Amino acid sequence: MPLHSPHSGPYRSTTALIASTVTRLRKKLGKLLALMAVAAMALAGCAQSANVDPEATGTATSIESAPVSFTDSTGRQVELPRKITRVASAGQLANMMLYAMAPDELVGWSSKPDNDTTKYIDPGYRDLPEYGNLYGDSGDFDKEAVLASNPQVIVDIGPWDEEYKGKLDSLQEDLGIPVILIDGALSTSGDAFRLLGQALGKTDLGEQLGAYADGLISDVQTKAATISEDQQLNVYYGEEKDGLSTIVAGSIHAETFDMVGARLVVGEDSIERKQKDGGTVSLTTVLDKNPDAIIFGPDSIGSTVAEDSSWASLDAVKNNRYYTVAGDPYNWIGRPPGLNRLLGVQWLGSVLYPETFDYDMVAKTKDFYTLFYRYDLTDDEAEALLNPASPSPSPSASSHG
Q1: Are residue 192 and residue 272 in the same domain, yes or no?
Q2: Is 219 helix (H, G, I), strand (E, B) or coil?
Q3: I need a labelling partner for 53 at 20 to 30 A (CA). Which of 37, 46, 247, 259 fits?
Q4: 22 falls in which pLDDT band (50, 70, 90)?
Q5: How many angstroms separate the CA atoms of 86 and 108, rounded?
Q6: Which candidate, 119, 99, 100, places its Cα nearest to that of 110?
Q7: Does some domain include residue 129?
Q8: How many domains does the chain have?
Q9: CA-to-CA separations, 80 to 43, 91, 143, 182, 200, in angstroms, rounded
Q10: Span 91-120, average pLDDT
Q11: 301-334 per-position pLDDT tens digit
């Protein structure tokens, strides 16, 4: 019987069949293993989900809802909500900064914007509740109205001392609502914006406004440093209908004058009837001081002083060196000494020392109102703010670099 060659006849066919069968089995086994792997992964996922530690989940949730420790300008450590959506203002300066930085979170003012102010305040915010001022001796801060607004934090901005620091603690304890204070000094405005941004969870905006303030103040201080002592002007600041209410040198209301290198002629010793950081003086005192320039507050006598014989002998009046500061939506110089001073200090420098503070005040005014009030001024509106009652062409409106 002849032997079969391994490469011929049925042997070759059987080998091919076995090889083919093995190949098919390998493919099926591969698919089966793949399915088993998928099933194993699914089971592992289910097991992992079933074995999630509820305490771990609770920890993550509690972290999200946990309060944040915040240190305000007085050094008080206050626990704030991690996400703040409702803020109450405790004063005029806070009104201004909160409207600039957190209008949608603002639930009430210390005082509503008046008719002159409302043009620059969005209508949606004008009729918010009114609480009164916490600072000062007015005693008109309405705690019940604040509670009715259900704020998560109460913000005040301005000067402080240990007595007022204690008042903040007492208010916080009485209402069960966090109360914070941000220092309102003009020279540290940049830090104030950053600190308020930190408190409200708006760090990017706080940094943006802080950088703006820092750059502006640095430029003003650099320019003022070039004015020698013998070039510094003696200035009187007059308010109210008779122009005889004033502010005193060295007060928070006088910071704009100090920063541009102007000497206020009225000190504490000249005040007849004292008020906070100022008071009233006699016309005789003003005549005796005979200032080089006069700045009148909004709604004072700047537009009529030239026709008033009792003021006519003053050098400032004879030389047309008297100006009226803008007051819309708030005074640019002081009262309240708020963020408008960032614009006011530039304006003040430009009218007192136009060759040194050679600003394009129309452009600066438009930029400021866009940034802080979200209001786009026309050139005419900016000019009107810069020259509300000036008797002579104001150098503040000239276009320089």
Answers
A1: no
A2: helix
A3: 37
A4: very low
A5: 9
A6: 99
A7: yes
A8: 2
A9: 44, 20, 19, 14, 9
A10: 90
A11: 999 999 999 999 999 999 999 999 999 999 999 8
Tokens 């706080």, located at residue:
206
- Residues near 48 by beta carbon (within 8 Å), at least 6 away in sequence: none
Give domain status of residue 42, yes or no.
Answer: no
- Token readout for 272 is 């007849």
Residue 66 to residue 100: CA distance in whole angstroms: 27
How many other CB atoms are found less than 10 A from the CB of residue 387?
A: 19
Cα–Cα nearest to 352, from 263, 270, 225: 263
Q: Which of 354, 351, 270 is nearest to 316 (CA)?
A: 351
CA distances from 106 to 87, 146, 154, 175, 337 (A): 5, 12, 10, 18, 20
CA distance 354 to 258: 17
* Residue 397, domain member (yes or no): no
Question: What radius of gyration do the chain's Cα atoms show?
Answer: 35
Domain range for 363 is 228-386
Beta-sheet strands, E only, within 47-172 = 68-71, 77-80, 87-89, 106-108, 153-157
Say how many CA atoms lie within 13 Å of 80 toward its Cβ.
26
**CA angle (190, 334, 354) in 5-degree steps:** 80
Tokens 């999630």 correspond to what residue?
52
Do 245 and 291 lie in a common domain?
yes
Q: Express as a percent the part of the chain with pLDDT over 70.
A: 79
Q: In what order do the strands lie in the sheet with 263-264?
A: 263-264, 234-238, 293-296, 322-324
Q: Are 238 and 301 in contact (CB under 8 A)?
A: yes
Query: Helix, strand or coil for residue 329?
Result: coil
Please report which residue ranges of 201-282 form alpha helices under DSSP H: 203-224, 255-260
Identity of the amino acid at 302: G
pTM of this prediction?
A: 0.80
| Cβ neighbourhood burial of 101 (10 Å; 0-12, 13-18, 19+) | buried
- Residue 373 confidence class, pLDDT cut points 50, 70, 90: very high
- Do residue 171 and residue 144 come from a single domain? yes
Same domain, 247 and 276: yes
